[in-house]
Amino acid sequence: MSKAFYITTPIYYVNDKPHIGHAYTTIACDVLARFKRLDGYEVKFLTGTDEHGQKVGKAAADKGITPLELCDANSQNFRDLAKTLGISNNDFIRTTEERHIKACQALWQRLEQAGEITIGKYAGWYAVRDEAFYDEGELTKGPNGEKIAPTGAPVEWVKEESYFFPLSKWQQPLLDFYDANPDFIAPKSRFNEIYSFVKGGLNDLSISRTAFSWGVPVPGNPKHVMYVWIDALTNYITSLGYPDESGEMATFWPKSDPVAIHVVGKDIIRFHCVYWPAFLMAAKLPLPRRVFAHGWWTVEGQKMSKSLGNAIDPNMLVEKYGLDQLRYFIMREIPFGNDGDFSEAAIAGRINSELANAFGNLAQRFLSFIGKNLEGVLPEPNAYTADDEVLLKSCHGLLDQCREAMERQAFHDVIEAIWVVVRAANGYVDVQAPWALRKTDPVRMNTVLYVLAETVRHLAILIQPFVPTSAAKMLDQLAVPETARSFGFLGEAHALKGGIKLPTPTGVFPRYGDPKAGPNPGKGA
Ligand code: ME8
Which of 70, 78, 147, 431 is the most exposed place for a label (fewest CB within 10 A)? Predict the structure, then answer.
């Protein structure tokens, strides 16, 4: 039976244009999904758009269109982005879909039947921009003396009939759960942040609104629509077919040994690490395995904002630098979990030093040498020297290292482990100098070229999740069949056969020119 793995991005609000921040989360999830598939898992990968709430209602009204018209247009931008980024999601959910409304209402009824929903009156502060409630004590004064939320969003006093979820009652069960599952929230700093937040006490949560109607109607009382976060979080099980608990629910949301990982930005951890597990516990449904909250990108040292107009369009980056180049950079530049800064100088630098010079050249040099001098035939190896054994051993040990880092969602560590071998292989070329051996010791030259080919085969197989198109080109050039590119083919048992004919090599990772003036190197790369 195959192992299951479920990976989700947040569902993005449709009132924003997709930018580098959204691309980041989605690419990270795609890398994980691809890694797990190559490692033999049955993977479900979900992304989508969050389409209800007061914010969307208001934005549509401002434009003079219906909320659904706004959602249709803007949801498509996220779907198109996923395509541009080469994302391998198996489902794209929209919260306005019938299947989702059905799932939300089923979850609501289940909570109601469990005695977890009561009706009362809500009076308090609400920030439409954040779609979040705030306590008086959390508010500060804005520039004009008005009250603002900790995020800087304006708040309004809301007083209306509302349904409530008794979140306070779940304080201790949540703390017990965190204690028993210290890996539920990653990285550790976020775990600590949530733990102390919950320890500080929880207020019951208003979970319905009557002031607007753009939402999922509360079953039996359609004057109310559900609070947008109860609606949004439910998407993770809607996609699995909930309320039907067989099928994908049984596979990807199992009763024990959870397999789901939610990757989110650090801005929305409270919703994912406090509300979501509390709703699930109250509904007596299983919990996901982990919420990983990554850090925040700034751009050229500045926070991205609508007013500054500095949000970076990922489509532009793909056009300018190439898709794999962007995917590699974004996963390499900052340790996953930390904040980071996006700069064009940094992406150009990594493309040239790491992809073009280090990895691209490693493959290109020996492949064109074989093409020119050996009629493109991969030579048979002879007896291995200690240097050969060391390099091959480091290749054979890579999968375990990558797996271990991937279990922690430490993408940067996976890349670094691969690059340790890239650097070792370049050092090996310098020491062995195969080009000089052609005249002096062709037998030894054959072995060196073979060891390099076998090394690049390992590196290219393992780097596929990050740079799928380029890795595929590299594997094509080594004549590795498409059916022999999963992690099961790593190691000696599936080593390349000497004597095979290799296709004419072409460069896989071109250099990027002057970032301001240069031609696009990534095109077609
Ligand atoms: O919060 N740096 O949607 P959203 C890194 N609909 N990541 C960033 C980023 C940045 N500067 N800006 C955005 C919502 N992100 C809800 C989610 S889930 C049930 C509902 C990414 O459109 C990051 O993943 O505001 C963040 O959590 C997400 O976009 C917020 O997307």
Answer: 431
Model pLDDT, residue 524: 37
Residue 24, ligand 1, Cβ within 6 A: yes
What's the CA gap between 353 and 118, in Å, rounded? 60
Q: Whose CA is nearest to atom 29 of ligand 1?
A: 22
Q: Which numbered atom of ligand 1 lies nearest the CA of 50? A: 6
Q: Could you report how far apart the first and last alpha carbons of the chain are, in Å?
A: 37
Q: Which CATH class is domain 344-517?
A: mainly alpha
Q: Which long-range contacts (CB under 8 A, 24 or more apart) does 280-285 make?
A: 281/170, 281/173, 281/174, 281/177, 282/111, 282/114, 282/116, 282/165, 282/170, 283/107, 283/110, 283/111, 283/114, 283/116, 284/110, 284/114, 285/110, 285/237, 285/253
Give pLDDT tens digits for 30-81.
Answer: 999 999 999 999 999 999 999 999 889 888 999 999 999 999 999 999 999 9
CATH entry, 4-295, from 2.80.10.50, 3.20.20.70, 3.90.79.10, 3.40.50.620: 3.40.50.620
Mutation choice for ligand 1 from 7, 8, 16, 25, CB with most ligand atoms inside 8 A = 25
Give residue 34 CA to ligand 1 midpoint distance, Å: 22
Closest residue CA from atom 18 of ligand 1: 10
pLDDT at residue 16 in the model: 81
Ligand 1 atom at shortest distance from the alpha carbon of 10: 18
Distances (CA, A) of 357 to 116, 256, 327, 416, 422: 60, 47, 18, 16, 11
Ligand 1 pocket member 339 (CB < 6 A): no
Spans of all domains in the chain: 4-295, 344-517
Probe target for ligand 1 pocket from 9, 17, 22, 128, with the most ligand atoms within 8 Å of CB: 22
pTM of the model: 0.95
